[in-house]
Amino acid sequence: MPVTPPPPFSIWVFVGLLAVLLASSAMFWAHVQRWTYNRHWVALGDWANRNRLRLHRAQRARVPAPLDELTLPPPNALVALAGRRITLLQMDTPAVVDRAGGVRPLQRWNVLVREIAVDWPTTALRPAMHERSLVDLFNLASLPALLSSDRFTIHGADSAAARAVVGSMMMALLPPNLGVVLHRRRLIVDFSTRPFDGIELSRILSLSDQIAGHLPALKGRG
């Protein structure tokens, strides 16, 4: 019985097999990167897409007003999830010398900024037990006569606005480890004590909906 000789070597078959091997390796490497080193970014991107927000990393992230004027030099945005009326961001504020002559070190903040319909004088609820709060960077006067609470202190430049906040449902809605600032047409929530991940972002987004829906009436403004 005659023996069939092996087919001749083909450089094109070899190149085709090599191309398949390289493509498979590249795809495997991409999946490893996605689910190990870049897992946090992938999760944030998926969450942003579900909530109709755009994910911006440090190179393109921007600190929205009024946070961009809190320090000099301005805060540095590390990541931002931005929509038409709302921004969730993680940012650093530089080390600065405060009015008392002390030095505030570089600090990291997790913040929500949301547009609201009413133009508010700057008014804030600060967590009473926290050593630091974003509220401190607004340099607002404390108004202890308007609020006796072991959870929050009230701060502001307008006593009528502060009184309206104290008499509203905001303190009932607000957990004791979060701070809130009403500044002109912005609602600002400081959730720096919590992680910057999809689960927590969903909670903060839902909380901001509740707070915005229960803002007290402020006479003469709108």
Secondary-structure map with pairings?
Blueprint: H1 11-35, H2 39-50, E1 54-57, E2 76-82, E3 86-93, E4 96-97, E5 103-104, E6 107-127, E7 152-156, H3 159-166, H4 170-173, E8 179-190, H5 198-213
Antiparallel strand pairs: 1-2, 2-3, 3-6, 4-5, 6-7, 6-8
What does this protein look like?
The protein has helices spanning about 10-35, 40-50, 160-165, 170-175, 200-215, and strands at about 55, 75-80, 85-95, 95, 105, 105-125, 150-155, 180-190. The protein is of the alpha+beta class and about 220 residues long. Strands 1, 2, 3, 6, 7 and 8 form a 6-stranded antiparallel sheet that branches. The chain contains 5 helices and 8 strands; from the N terminus they run ααβββββββααβα. The protein starts with 10 loop residues before the first helix and ends in a 9-residue tail after the last helix. About 25% of the residues are buried. The protein is elongated and about 105 Å long. It has 2 domains: about 10-50; about 55-215, no CATH class.
How many helices? The count is: 5
Task: Evaluate the radius of gyration.
Answer: 26 Å
Shape: elongated
Classification by helices and strands: alpha+beta
List keywords for this structure.
222 residues; alpha+beta; 2 domains; six-stranded antiparallel beta sheet; two-stranded antiparallel ribbon; 8 strands; 29% helix; elongated
Please outline what is shown here.
With 222 residues, the chain is of the alpha+beta class. The chain is built from five helices and eight strands; from the N terminus they run H-H-E-E-E-E-E-E-E-H-H-E-H. It has two domains: 10-50; 53-213, no CATH class.
